[in-house]
Design brief:
Layout lengths: L4 H13 L2 E6 L3 H15 L3 E6 L1 H9 L6 E3 L3 H9 L9 E6 L1 E6 L13 H5 L4 E4 L5 H12 L3 H4 L3 E4 L2 H9 L5 E5 H5 L4 E6 L8 E7 L5 H9 L3 H9 L7
Length: 246
């Protein structure tokens, strides 16, 4: 989709004022906010962070939005931009991993998530919050895991979809959905939910966050992208529930 003129002008103004503009998957927000603030304090480089669902961000970059770095929650959407020659191939690298979890509103008893779990019973007639299952990585991983365990057909009528994983998390935190499928890093950022189970790692494709410079990015952006793989930044990510990669 094409950015509205007003939105494009705002993004251009932000880009002009900042040394580096980062388009990042919504699930990175809590950790990346802290990393960027510390980086600015230490280097003087201003970082503008724009969060959203990975597909929406990728489409905005494809249509000319002024991003220097793209941090995706999906290798597929990074592949898409690479095929369109919109990122600097040599700068692409996998930065993080994550795990997929089931969260509940407030406090709830833990469960073992496997093919025998009574997910409809746990919902009790309520909704299961997920990110968009057709396009947003968290939703795609979630649907894949449910299908792998033979649970998707049982809960599909109860699924309510949100534009990104943080929006799905908010539905559970507010009590509008009793359960939700999100990343482990999301639960740490939201005190209104509790983790009641983790999906088996082999029930879905590995969750990987690739990053790359866009074709218009400069040296300042390259330095910040490198910093995201540094021990200091990786420790912040780890403390926020992400998984380090080998």
């Amino acid at each position: 989709m094409r950015l509205p003129l007003a939105a494009a002008m705002i993004l251009c103004a932000q880009s002009a004022l900042a040394d580096v503009t980062v388009f990042a998957a919504a699930s990175l927000k809590t950790a990346l906010d802290d990393i960027a603030a510390a980086y600015t304090e230490n280097t003087g480089t201003e970082i503008t962070l724009s969060y959203g669902g990975t597909p929406a961000l990728a489409k905005q970059i494809a249509e000319g939005a002024p991003a220097d770095i793209f941090l995706s929650a999906s290798t597929a959407w990074m592949d898409d931009l690479q095929e369109k020659a919109l990122i600097q191939d040599a700068t692409r690298r996998d930065i993080l991993g994550n795990s997929l979890i089931l969260v509940a509103h407030g406090q709830a008893a833990p469960v073992i998530i496997d093919a025998t779990v009574d997910l409809p019973g746990l919902l009790g007639g309520g909704k299961l919050a997920m990110a968009l299952v057709a396009s947003v990585p968290a939703g795609q991983y979630g649907k894949e895991a449910l299908e792998s365990l033979g649970l998707w057909s049982k809960v599909e009528p109860s699924v309510v979809q949100s534009e990104n994983v943080r929006a799905a998390l908010k539905l559970v935190a507010l009590g509008e959905a009793p359960l939700g499928i999100v990343y482990a890093s999301d639960a740490i950022a939201e005190p209104g939910v509790s983790v009641i189970g983790t999906f088996p790692a082999d029930s879905h494709q590995p969750i990987v966050y690739p990053g790359a410079l866009t074709i218009t990015a400069g040296d300042e952006a390259g330095a910040f992208l490198d910093h995201l793989s540094s021990p200091e930044a990786q420790e912040v990510f780890r403390a926020n529930g992400f998984l380090p990669l080998p």
